Structure of FtsX-like permease family protein:
Amino acid sequence: MNFIALRMLMSDRAKYWGLVFAFAFSTFLLQNQISIFCGIMMRTGSQILDVTDADVWVMDPYTEYFEQTKALKDTDLTRVRGVPEVDYAVRLFKGNPTARTLAGKFASTFTLGVDDSTLVGVPRKMIMGSWERLTEAKSIVIDKAGYNLLFPGEPLELERILELNDHKVTIVGISDAAAPFVSFPVIHARYSEAVNFQGRERNQMSFVLARPKPGVSPESLARQLEQATGLKARTTREFAWDCVVYYLKNTGIPVNFVITIAVALVVGLAVSGQTFYMFTVENLRQFGALKAIGVTNTRLVFMVLLQAVVAGAIGYAIGTGMAAAFFTATLNGMATRGIILMWQAVVGVGGVMALVVAAVSILSVRKVLVLEPASVFR
């Protein structure tokens, strides 16, 4: 019976492949949109996750996400260092000065000023040059995407000059920093120089980065810092999630993606369901003949389920392959770097497609169950 069910499914190749590709394109669209959405949302905290030398971020109590900063007092750094569980704490500056090349091309930047003596917070993944050279005067590290934005079409090269707020600086390293939410170049410099790139204000320190002593968890240290200083303290992962939640609540990005995902789901369900239902209706004579020779309803139901599962599984595999090929092809693009096919999307969409297969099977099997065997001979 299984062989007969599969022969019935594949006998009309046009309808068979139409059904398979309905499942395939639904799978591709769902996995594609979910992965892109999650990738873009994760970019909101990419500069936080790039800092691997500290586990706790201390900031103004009303800070909600990374781009929203209110400068701390220099005495706040001393207060944080005064908490017994703190192994070390350093200051971090974040600003958005405009970088200009000697040829005149310019762009706003994410400029991060790391502690002068320890360089805690500088990206460790380098494509060219060395982050240790930040100890040199008037030196910066820029990410590859930022370099390509300021020097389009030119090969990567060190010792090039940029102008930041009338300060000429030298590129001593090109980093592989994670892509930010907006396509600004990501620049790292020493704290004492970065504050001059932005322009002097009374208070300059954006964050304090701290690491707990051995045996103290980052979560425990964060809570103790909040009690001791009255400032807001978040672990690296908590702060990155704060950024994601802020953009989910305050932008239209999730609404647009949810609409697209819902349309993909509805279209996939409608097209695949209608195609499989029509396939079953057109094969009613064969099902009726099987009933007439004594095949039970249970066996017929199993045949319909087998047809739906085979078509759904092949379509899901093709759709997942299409999604994997898409993200492999776009992985190294400047605009799409870091956005990958997430395994959570693959597993989740697999569960959704299983429900779709179950739904179209239920719709189709009812027609077979109420079929009168004698009707095929009329």
